[in-house]
Design the sequence.
């Protein structure tokens, strides 16, 4: 009995005695597991790269690309057209770029889904855009009069394409799209008396597309049945006069949604008031956004600067206008846009914004919206007295600013670059270098303060030269072209390079 | 005094009887039956029995045989020696009759008109215990006792009744019946002669009854295993694997069935026996019950070899038939007695218990001296060779013992959970999710292995993975049912893994620990996540990891993994005669235990690598982790052996997969892609997720922390080997968690391995650690006073119970979250588009979303192709290098970087008609299925949307299909020469390998006017069809291995197109054949591979002793004897001789 008890006690003592190195092993396991858990928490897994901005559908393919395209619509062909069209191609690459240009006009019979006209055969031409040079083409040459669409297929990249429409009412310039999209959005159209609003739907692909078009008005959305199920044939163009079915609307937003395929959509707004008038050629935006930017806007004393907002969504959007002056910032202004509705903000009426001072505008919204801007020159000014352009959602460090013409073929007689504005929407100052496109010849080097804008005047950037803008930080670039009475009447955002 | 009693001759067959023999003789001499004569047949005893017989029973006759013969043959001697007897009383030499036994038997024979009468047989030393009261038989001839072992005789069996078999110790047989039956079957040497005789007696209409009033004591020296079978008896078998009594019984039962049934019942019953025996054989092999497996195999082999003899005997039986089988069947048991008995034993003892008991019985029955000597190899000098170290026996601790019923119930519940959780998958079709894609068919699956050409990308001659061959072999076993093959391959992994863990922990000697470890391994969510995500590799490693660890553990030789654990029980170090030269290689192999271990693990690794190439990494890392941990825990010299084994096994696996390995290594730096395609680092599993093994939808609950927590238990409680092995398990687990974590973060560059693969060894180590905690509780806390250790154990058990809940909950729906609908259904319409020409589909997405092998396109995007629609398993294992298909990736890269808007034109030369972008593993169907989603790089969708020649024709949640409006059929024809293709033949140097840029409007075909020719199903190596004069373009690589043969039988001139494809100039119209000519190297490589596999398999199977002894016996017999049935030393050759008198004779 005694022996048994002592044996048991011995066993118990043995059990209580720790195994050699037990706690070292336990500590090592705990330290490794906990340590790696800590590292795992501290060194967080990388988040996925954000989706690239849509670049408003106008990016310039990088130099060295294998193929790229430019898709232009909204203009008109022939002397009888409301506006003549010239397309300018700016090659920033060191090699010649070959292109095949295909132009055609809309059938022009019927409207909407009932368009039945037989399109004329497209005209195809081969082009060469010289290295670091520019070329101008008249896409309507050889075509009947009518609304015009032109596509360019390049065997390289680095070519920026913009088109200029001009007519008796004035002139306007807009970049051409570089891709199709199943949706396009516009803000700032009108069909009141004296206005003609044309919507061009161009399908450059080899598969047909079916498109629905609806309109946003202050009183809600209009869905004309005629504009539902519009068949845009492969390689075809459909041009619609919006006023035919949306009449007398002072403020219109346009939504183009393709049921199948993709198209390029542009609006041409022509305003005429007797002896004077204006033209606004606007490429749509492929998608609404919560942030819109305008690099440079200037309020003239008696002119009108208006921002047009369209909310295609189903929730109200509160848009905040952040206005950055060269040396100061203005208290933001908020505008509420009802769902599927439109609204405006007349910046020139705001006492917070000084006149004759360029400012950068960033519109931040609680819901995805579309924003554009129109400028009306003071009464009595020579044409063009009115113009409009779409905002941009893009910031980039490399921009192409096309010229409003080439010396032998200006966009309009006397066309010139009046100013070039660069705004820095970021939080870090941006060092900016402006060079002549393709050549690398520096024009200006300067720094833009965060949230503000720097504007190069005609003395620096005047004439018919295209520019490249390189920046240390993402910026927004906008060009103002003349002749026009007021800044902003003929203006366009630059074209960002995709890389 | 003359009596009217019928004369009875007691026939005692004796062979080297023990001291009991005198008692046997005395009992016969003391019978109260006057007309009894005794005939002793001395079956070649070592010493003549005449003297012994004469001393006890001087009136007895003795007949001595100089050569040992079977019981039946010896007994039949009575027919030639005795005349005038009415009854024979056949007795063994170890039975003792009670004084009235004979007269009671005769009396009962008269009373019942029985042909055969059996007494009640009781134990020799305890007559109150029953041994036999007649025996029953089922339809398969399985003999069943009517009494329980050790049953006490209370008179419960004292009624006279018909029985099917009169057991052979002491049997009264009417002489006329015996004559009509032709005596015993002389071919039955031992075991089963009573069954055979009684069955034939039933056939001729005789009754077989048991007369319990008559009693005999029976020592059962032979059947009980106390006396070995004389090795000189002609029983067949070979020295290494002598025929056991069990095997004799089985073969003679089968013989009786084949002889005694009529054709109808034979036709009905024999297939049932085949099925039952097949199942029995497989279960026995799985359970390691080799004697039983060999017995079954031997029974069939022996009977099949002597079918001619059996046919003759059957004719004799049928010639005397008086009763139909239907009437005889009434006397037999219903169902399968053996199956019922086995099931009962499994319920009582558990699976292993049932077989372990039988093995112990077999060992006991085998007896040490004579049989063992027969089994041992004998050196030329005749002395038994020394035995190699034997497997360390499992020392079950009493505390760790679990009742068999409890274990069986636990495993049944676990199996039930797995089966219930998989019921929809087991009974339905497995959707094409991840790597779960259907096999293309039995022939096509094998064909992929032998073809020498694989359709992945745009075609490659890289050798195929052996996985095709393995799947083909499994499919062959399953009679070509490849759907079933897929299910078997998938669902066998789970029980295999659990079994591996149970075997892994068994050396620690605790059944409870084995049980818990196995159940924990089943409860860990890893395999079910692998199922839910369609990860075949993860399942394969789940099955294989415990076995890999087992090999590595044994290689260390550290306790309790005894050295030589895998060595054979008997080393085949020498065999007599001509076998010496043949087995020299194997003998050499036997002497190199490390090499044998390398071969074993190498084969396992090769199998795993075939399905999941990353298994090679797992084996090496496991070996390194084991060695590294032992540096800290001590005994590192031993543990380093595991690392060497891992490296050696990997080398063996490489050799076994040599052609495929060469193909992999030919990819150069890209060879690392064989392990997997990199996934986006943004979605990498966190450290905590990896520790919880919940890398999928199953087990995404904090409760799954329980497994890791419980695995800490042995670190706190264990001592000695349990503690050290727990430390090693933790090291292994941590290393694999770490590797999975680091790879998920993308810190190892292009090395990408599926986390389900890497977590499998961690899961096995965790389960083992949990089991060690249980073992530690049983052993190391045995004498500890109550304290925190016991509380910690209880807490761990509770945690484990909670940890299983997520898995249990996930089992309820019945498909482990595997989606019901797959993209194969969503995109089934593609197959109908083949009429417009053969085409390829380019798949883009996260590699986990794709249903086939893929290559990286950067940023976690993967690309792959298929032909004619959605892929099957043909595309599951790609060549490591994409070859010319890399151009597809380059083109996609250009599109993503905005450098082209004509992607369709760039993909057209490869015949790509559709581009499919996947963002989930299956279609998202609200309220029906929410499969795992794997986003693609954010720039992909916009890039594809920008392409002017890609039409987004189909969009669902999880999938977008773009139709290439510029596509070119895979096999197309153009009139004249194809200037476009020829011009595109020279890809500019320094370019990313795509078409030279051209300026052409959308809708401009790469090859204008091309139309499809040479139709045929996808992935073929030959296409035939009419071709007019012109140019045929074929988008298959390598172009140099394809040729177009025209109607004249000559190959058409070939030139390059698009830089990698081929175009053929067709001069005359006619039927042409486009075919692949791989040359001799691919078949040669496959042949070498097959030879290697067969050689290694032969070596290992020989070592395992699985080769059926009768195969070798037949071979040996063919060398030394003329072919034919075993010669029975018959009495006909013997001189009849005189009846020898007893002592005075």
Sequence:
């Amino acid at each position: 009995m005694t022996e048994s008890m002592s044996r048991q006690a011995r066993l118990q003592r043995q059990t209580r005695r720790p195994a050699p190195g037990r706690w070292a092993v336990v500590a090592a396991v705990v330290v490794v597991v906990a340590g790696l858990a800590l590292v795992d928490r501290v060194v967080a897994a990388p988040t996925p790269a954000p989706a690239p901005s849509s670049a408003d559908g106008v990016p310039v393919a990088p130099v060295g690309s294998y193929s790229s395209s430019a898709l232009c619509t909204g203009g008109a062909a022939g002397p009888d057209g409301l506006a003549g069209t010239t397309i300018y191609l700016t090659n920033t690459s060191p090699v010649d770029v070959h292109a095949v240009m295909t132009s055609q006009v809309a059938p022009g019979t019927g409207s909407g889904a009932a368009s039945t006209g037989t399109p004329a055969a497209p005209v195809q031409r081969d082009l060469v855009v010289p290295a670091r040079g520019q070329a101008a083409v008249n896409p309507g040459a050889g075509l009947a009069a009518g609304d015009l669409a032109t596509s360019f297929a390049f065997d390289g990249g680095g070519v920026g394409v913009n088109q200029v429409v001009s007519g008796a009412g004035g002139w306007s310039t807009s970049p051409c799209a570089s891709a199709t999209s199943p949706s396009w959005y516009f803000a700032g159209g009108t069909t009141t008396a004296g206005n003609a609003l044309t919507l061009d739907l161009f399908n450059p692909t080899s598969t047909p597309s079916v498109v629905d078009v609806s309109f946003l008005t202050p009183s809600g959305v209009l869905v004309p049945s005629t504009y539902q199920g519009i068949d845009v044939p492969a390689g075809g163009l459909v041009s619609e006069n919006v006023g035919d079915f949306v009449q007398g609307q002072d403020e219109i937003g346009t939504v183009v949604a393709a049921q199948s395929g993709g198209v390029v959509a542009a609006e041409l707004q022509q305003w005429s008031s007797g002896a004077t008038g204006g033209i606004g050629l606007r490429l749509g935006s492929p998608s609404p956004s919560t942030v819109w930017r305008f690099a440079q806007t200037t309020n003239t004393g008696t002119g009108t600067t208006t921002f047009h907002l369209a909310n295609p969504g189903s929730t109200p959007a509160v848009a905040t206008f952040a206005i950055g002056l060269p040396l100061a910032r203005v208290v933001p202004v908020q505008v509420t846009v009802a769902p599927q509705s439109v609204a405006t903000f007349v910046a020139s009426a705001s006492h917070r914004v000084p006149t004759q001072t360029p400012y950068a505008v960033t519109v931040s919204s609680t819901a995805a919206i579309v924003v554009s801007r129109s400028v009306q020159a003071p009464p009595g000014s020579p044409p063009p007295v009115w113009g409009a352009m779409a905002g941009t959602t893009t910031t980039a460090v490399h921009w192409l600013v096309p010229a409003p013409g080439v010396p032998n073929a200006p966009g309009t007689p006397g066309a010139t670059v009046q100013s070039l504005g660069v705004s820095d929407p970021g939080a870090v100052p941006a060092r900016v270098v402006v060079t002549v496109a393709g050549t690398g010849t520096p024009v200006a080097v300067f720094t833009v303060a965060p949230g503000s804008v720097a504007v190069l005047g005609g003395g620096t950037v005047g004439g018919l030269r295209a520019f490249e803008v390189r920046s240390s930080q993402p910026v927004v670039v906008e060009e103002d072209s003349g002749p026009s009475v007021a800044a902003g009447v003929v203006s366009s955002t630059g074209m960002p390079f995709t890389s | 005094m003359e009596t009217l009693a019928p004369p009875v001759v007691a026939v005692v067959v004796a062979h080297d009887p023990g001291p009991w023999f005198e008692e046997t003789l005395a009992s016969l001499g003391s019978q109260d039956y006057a007309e009894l004569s005794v005939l002793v047949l001395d079956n070649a005893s070592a010493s003549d029995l005449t003297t012994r017989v004469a001393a006890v029973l001087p009136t007895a006759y003795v007949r001595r045989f100089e050569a040992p013969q079977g019981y039946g043959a010896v007994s039949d001697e009575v027919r030639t020696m005795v005349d005038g007897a009415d009854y024979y009383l056949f007795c063994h030499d170890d039975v003792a009759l009670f004084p009235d036994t004979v007269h009671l038997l005769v009396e009962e024979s008269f009373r019942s008109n029985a042909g055969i009468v059996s007494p009640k047989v009781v134990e020799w030393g305890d007559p109150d215990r029953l041994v036999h009261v007649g025996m029953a038989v089922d339809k398969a001839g399985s003999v069943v006792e009517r009494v329980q072992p050790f049953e006490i005789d209370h008179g419960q069996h004292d009624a006279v009744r018909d029985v099917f078999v009169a057991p052979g110790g002491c049997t009264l047989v009417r002489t006329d019946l015996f004559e009509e039956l032709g005596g015993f079957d002389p071919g039955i040497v031992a075991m089963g002669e009573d069954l055979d005789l009684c069955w034939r007696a039933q056939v001729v209409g005789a009754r077989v009854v048991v007369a319990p009033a008559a009693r005999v004591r029976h020592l059962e020296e032979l059947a009980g295993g106390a006396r070995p079978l004389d090795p000189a008896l002609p029983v067949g078998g070979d020295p290494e694997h002598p025929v056991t009594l069990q095997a004799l019984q089985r073969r003679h039962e089968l013989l009786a069935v084949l002889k005694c049934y009529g054709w109808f019942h034979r036709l009905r019953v024999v297939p049932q026996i085949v099925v039952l025996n097949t199942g029995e054989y497989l279960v026995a092999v799985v359970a390691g019950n080799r004697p039983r497996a060999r017995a079954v195999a031997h029974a069939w082999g022996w009977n099949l070899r002597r079918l001619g003899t059996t046919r003759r005997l059957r004719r004799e039986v049928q010639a005397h038939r008086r009763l139909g089988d239907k009437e005889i069947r009434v006397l037999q048991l219903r169902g399968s007695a053996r199956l019922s008995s086995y099931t009962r034993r499994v319920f009582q003892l558990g699976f292993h218990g049932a077989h372990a008991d039988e093995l112990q019985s077999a060992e006991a029955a085998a007896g040490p001296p004579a049989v063992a000597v027969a089994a041992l190899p004998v050196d030329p000098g005749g002395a038994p060779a020394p035995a190699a170290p034997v497997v360390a026996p499992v020392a079950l601790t009493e505390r760790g013992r679990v009742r068999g019923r409890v274990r069986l119930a636990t495993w049944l519940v676990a199996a039930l959970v797995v089966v219930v959780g998989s019921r929809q998958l087991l009974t339905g079709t497995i959707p094409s999710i991840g790597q779960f894609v259907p096999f293309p068919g039995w022939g096509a699956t094998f064909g992929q292995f032998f073809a020498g050409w694989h359709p992945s990308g745009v075609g490659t001659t890289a050798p195929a993975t052996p996985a095709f061959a393995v799947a083909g072999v499994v499919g062959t076993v399953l009679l070509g049912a490849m759907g079933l093959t897929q299910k078997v391959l998938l669902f066998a992994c789970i029980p295999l893994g659990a079994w591996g863990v149970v075997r892994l922990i068994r050396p620690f000697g605790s059944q409870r620990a084995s049980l818990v470890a196995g159940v924990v391994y089943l409860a860990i969510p890893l395999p079910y996540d692998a199922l839910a995500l369609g990860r075949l590799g993860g399942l394969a490693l789940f099955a294989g990891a415990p076995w890999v660890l087992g090999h590595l553990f044994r290689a260390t030789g550290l306790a309790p993994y005894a050295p030589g654990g895998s060595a054979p029980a008997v080393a085949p170090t020498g065999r007599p005669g001509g076998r010496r030269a043949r087995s020299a290689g194997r003998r050499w192999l036997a002497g190199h235990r490390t090499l044998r271990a390398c071969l074993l693990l190498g084969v396992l690794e090769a199998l795993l690598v075939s399905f999941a190439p990353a298994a090679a990494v797992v084996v090496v890392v496991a070996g390194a982790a084991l060695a590294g941990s032992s540096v800290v825990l001590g005994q590192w010299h031993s543990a380093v052996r595991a690392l060497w084994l891992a490296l050696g096994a990997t080398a063996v696996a490489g050799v076994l997969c040599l052609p495929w390995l060469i193909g992999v290594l030919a990819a150069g730096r890209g060879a690392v892609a064989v392990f997997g395609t990199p996934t986006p680092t943004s979605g990498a599993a966190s450290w905590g997720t990896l520790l919880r093994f919940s890398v999928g939808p199953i087990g995404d609950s904090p409760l799954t922390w329980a497994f890791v927590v419980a695995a800490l238990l042995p670190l706190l409680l264990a001592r000695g080997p349990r503690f050290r092995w727990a430390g090693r398990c933790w090291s292994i687990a941590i290393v694999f968690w770490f590797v999975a974590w680091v790879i998920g973060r993308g810190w190892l560059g292009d090395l990408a391995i599926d986390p389900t693969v890497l977590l499998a060894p961690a899961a096995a180590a965790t389960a083992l650690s949990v089991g060690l905690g249980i073992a530690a509780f049983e052993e190391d806390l045995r004498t500890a006073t109550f304290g925190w250790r016991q509380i910690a154990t209880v807490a761990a058990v509770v945690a484990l119970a909670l940890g299983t809940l997520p898995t249990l909950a996930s089992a309820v729906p019945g498909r482990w979250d595997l989606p019901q609908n797959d993209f194969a259904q969503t995109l089934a319409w593609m197959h109908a588009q083949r009429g417009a020409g053969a085409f390829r589909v380019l798949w883009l997405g996260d590699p986990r979303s794709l249903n086939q092998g893929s290559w990286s396109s950067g940023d976690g995007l993967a690309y792959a192709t298929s032909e004619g629609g959605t892929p099957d398993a043909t595309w599951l294992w790609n060549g490591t290098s994409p070859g010319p298909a890399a151009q597809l990736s380059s083109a996609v890269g250009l599109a993503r970087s905005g450098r082209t808007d004509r992607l369709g034109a760039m993909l057209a030369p490869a015949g790509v008609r559709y581009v499919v972008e996947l963002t989930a593993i299956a279609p998202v169907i609200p309220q029906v299925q929410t499969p795992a989603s794997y986003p693609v790089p954010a720039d992909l969708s916009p890039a594809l949307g920008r392409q002017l020649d890609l039409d987004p024709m189909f969009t669902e949640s999880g999938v977008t299909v773009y139709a290439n409006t510029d596509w070119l059929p895979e096999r197309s024809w153009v009139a004249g020469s194809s200037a476009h293709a020829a011009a595109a033949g020279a890809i500019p140097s320094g370019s990313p390998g795509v078409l030279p840029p051209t300026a052409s409007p959308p809708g401009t075909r790469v090859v204008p006017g091309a139309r499809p020719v040479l139709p045929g199903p996808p992935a073929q190596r030959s296409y035939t069809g009419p071709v007019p004069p012109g140019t045929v373009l074929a988008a298959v690589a390598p172009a140099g291995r394809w040729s177009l043969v025209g109607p004249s039988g000559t190959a058409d001139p070939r030139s390059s197109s698009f830089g990698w494809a081929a175009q053929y100039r067709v001069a005359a119209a006619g039927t042409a054949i486009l075919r692949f000519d791989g040359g001799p190297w691919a078949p040669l490589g496959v042949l070498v591979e097959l030879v290697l596999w067969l050689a290694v398999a032969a070596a290992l199977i020989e070592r395992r002793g699985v080769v059926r002894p009768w195969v070798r016996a037949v071979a040996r017999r063919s060398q030394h004897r003329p072919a034919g049935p075993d010669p029975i030393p018959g009495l006909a050759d013997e001189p009849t001789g005189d009846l020898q008198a007893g002592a005075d004779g």
In short: The first strand of chain B starts at residue 8 and ends at 14. The CA atoms of residues 143 and 322 of chain B lie 23 Å apart.
